[in-house]
Specification:
This protein is of the alpha+beta class. The chain contains 4 helices and 7 strands, in the order ααβββαββββα. It has helices at about 5-15, 20-25, 75-90, 140-155, and strands at about 30-35, 40-45, 50, 95-100, 105-115, 120-125, 140. The strands form 3 sheets. A 3-stranded antiparallel beta sheet has the order 1-2-3. The chain has a two-stranded antiparallel ribbon with strand order 4-5. The longest helix has 16 residues, at about 75-90.
Length: about 190
């Protein structure tokens, strides 16, 4: 891949490979922030992500390959989920995960990039808490919480666990919800 002038300029600023920067720009809507060795972008799928989610880990680096996010993770989740449900004759939900850093926190956590048959957000607004106070903002990112739990079990290095089965979650399966529901719009995002 031949890096653009924009990629060359940005690569010099943050001291990264220009070809890698071009791959990131190809997968992005816009650059959100950058500094030495860090590039935060809005992925074309809407995620705010370091390096557009492009990964170099857990693949052979002898050919300078990278891993990209799926083009349509919700559709991929639907296809995989339907195939598993047909094979096992069992109703399930499925989440495709990746990891991300978070503002103001160290460490990476799993999050849902695609889902099918899972209620991604549990809206608690209008319900009462333990002290009978009305919940005004509480929306639980169910798919992200399940993704984080699964990511912890899958590991990030040599664990070789690409799949985690979560049982006993007692969620009402929901084909109308997708991981896209978890993406906060730019006008509601306090960090951009």
């Amino acid at each position: 891949m031949i890096p653009s002038k924009e990629a060359e300029k940005l690569a010099k600023k943050i001291q990264k490979d220009p070809q890698f920067i071009q791959a990131v720009l190809n997968e992005s809507k816009q650059v959100v922030r950058h500094r030495m060795d860090v590039l935060i972008v809005e992925h074309k799928l809407g995620f705010i992500h370091a390096n557009a989610g492009i990964d170099r880990s857990n693949i052979d680096q002898s050919k300078n390959n990278v891993l990209l996010l799926p083009e349509n993770p919700d559709l991929s989740a639907k296809k995989i989920c339907n195939s598993i449900m047909e094979y096992f004759n069992k109703e399930i939900g499925l989440i495709i995960t990746d990891t991300m850093g978070r503002p103001f926190r160290n460490g990476i956590v799993g999050f849902a990039i695609g889902s099918f048959n899972i209620p991604c957000i549990l809206d608690e607004r209008g319900k009462k808490d333990l002290y009978n106070n009305e919940l005004k903002l509480t929306q639980i990112g169910v798919a992200d919480e399940l993704a984080a739990a699964a990511s912890l079990l899958m590991g990030q290095a040599t664990q070789k666990k690409p799949i985690v089965v979560i049982k006993g979650c007692n969620l009402n399966l929901n084909t109308s919800s997708t991981a896209k529901d978890l993406i906060r719009s730019e006008n509601e995002d306090l960090f951009r």
